[in-house]
Specification:
272 residues, alpha/beta, D-Maltodextrin-Binding Protein, domain 2, 11 helices, 13 strands, 39% helix, 21% strand, globular
Length: 272
């Protein structure tokens, strides 16, 4: 399934809003650190190191990159699909780097950094020999997802799947192993890493080489925080300009998407 350029165009158009000052950036600098809500659902995006108990992975490294760009320290807070929006709205975190791709619905309740840092779609994992070989095979079958997943609507509307929503990816995958669903659908890099390198999942496979609704990956923040938004957008653009994002993905065993290379070329050629 080809990436949606319509989604990216709509995302960029929505950022042309009237700006007004916010106090969040000042608080971050006075505090000396930024608090980032991150997903730690598994490699490559994030895990907890069993020895040090530190948060590690792609989402954490991006959080550290934001903090470095702002000249402050960083604290990462683990969030789940079921609570990440609430954590942001309640002020428990300053921003979200939490496997939340841009959607129209999300942009109506939250603000976001206009320059995406990647583009991610969903993959389906199913047991080998299950008969599920492509997206259309999910019609009428129970499919496990995380609560609030942006994959829910296309799975139900386009493919006729029966949705079973769980607190997060671990619970969804546990339900799949328990035979409670025909497949589970989550962000593609995590599931592809799972079947490629985890022996516990040797009897499972990715259903289709094509991902569902590839969408821009953005950093989320509260409505009205235009100063914070602008400061972080400059940081993300610099990531693209220098190629840092490509390096981070490669270090985490990810394959940079065509969009990432396009943004690198765009900002590399733009005046600093």
């Amino acid at each position: 399934m080809k990436p949606s350029r319509t989604a990216l165009a709509a995302l960029l158009a929505l950022t042309a809003l009237a700006a007004h000052a916010d106090a969040t950036l000042d608080r971050i600098k006075q505090r000396g650190k930024i608090v980032v809500g991150v997903m730690l659902s598994g490699p490559p995006f994030g895990t907890i190191d069993p020895v040090t108990q530190r948060h590690v992975g792609y989402n954490v490294q991006l959080s550290e990159g934001v903090a470095k760009g702002l000249g402050v320290g960083v604290e990462t807070v683990q969030v789940q699909p079921s609570n990440r929006v609430q954590f942001l709205q309640q002020g428990k975190v300053d921003i979200l780097i939490a496997n939340m791709q841009w959607t129209q619905e999300r942009s109506e309740i939250l603000s976001f950094v206009p320059t995406p840092f990647e583009e991610v779609g969903g993959a389906a994992i199913a047991k080998k020999g299950s008969g599920v070989r492509q997206w259309d095979d999910l019609r009428g079958k129970p499919v496990c997802v995380s609560q609030g997943s942006n994959f829910t609507k296309p799975l139900a509307d386009q493919y006729g799947a029966q949705i079973k929503a769980f607190r997060g990816q671990p619970e969804s995958l546990l339900a799949l192993k328990g035979g409670n669903c025909a497949a589970a659908v989550h962000v593609s890099p995590t599931l592809r890493e799972l079947v490629a390198s985890n022996a516990d999942w040797k009897d499972y496979e990715i259903v289709s080489p094509a991902d569902i609704i590839p969408s821009p990956s953005v950093i989320w923040l509260r409505k009205g925080e235009s100063d914070t938004q602008a400061a972080i957008d400059r940081i993300v653009q610099d990531w693209h300009r220098t190629g840092w994002l490509i390096e981070v993905e490669q270090r985490n065993g990810m394959t940079p998407t065509p969009l990432l290379h396009q943004l690198h070329d765009k900002f590399r050629k733009a005046p600093a």
